[in-house]
Write a structure and sequence with these properties.
eight-stranded mixed beta barrel; alpha/beta; TIM Barrel; globular
Amino acid sequence: MTSATVATVGLAGAMTDPPQAGAAPQVGPDVSSHQHPGGASINWFAVRASGQHMAMVKATESTWYVNPHFVPDSLAMRAAGLVRGTYHYADPSRSATQQAIFYATIVLGQNGILDLPPVLDLEHSGGLGPRALAAWVREFFAVLEPLTGRKTILYTYPNFWNTAMGATREFADHPLWIASYNGGAVPQMPRGGWRTWTFWQFTSSGRLPGVSTPVDLNRYNGSVAGLRAYGNAINVFGS
């Protein structure tokens, strides 16, 4: 992946773990402003028609940046019937509390129809050592999750987790979105105590109809029905 007006964010449902894995993994892209060269739009209906069931979009970064394409992409994803995820690109050199509140405010809690749980994209240490970085993540989750009512998904790389996070097992109860470009049938897993993965980013150079640039592609470790249940969207806009 790549590097406000205050609103009231309500608690909208209980925190739940992702559904059990089912059939063959489902594929979907994650995007940011880099997929909008020159302000070009993504044709989310073409993305959906190509067989994708989900998509992730960058919402925020640090304490100040909002992806200018976040709102139009989100609206078009929903109109196309895609299960939508959003992510916050972490800046551990700045306040975890402020970033959690900022993200929750921009995504308005993210617990509606077609919404996957929020995501913390953790791939830089901000100069913190493993203990301090783990404390930063702990604080971010402690602030964000009461605002969303959902258990945050954690995006990271195996090597980053094993080194910058000291291979801590503290967060193994959070769903894992792992970036692993190993070309294999399963991703390389970090030494963090996870028994399995929930999402797997398996390439950064995918191609899809409706997207004019190379794009990250991801698998969900389960069936279409499981994905839609995780996104509060069973029987919405068909299968």
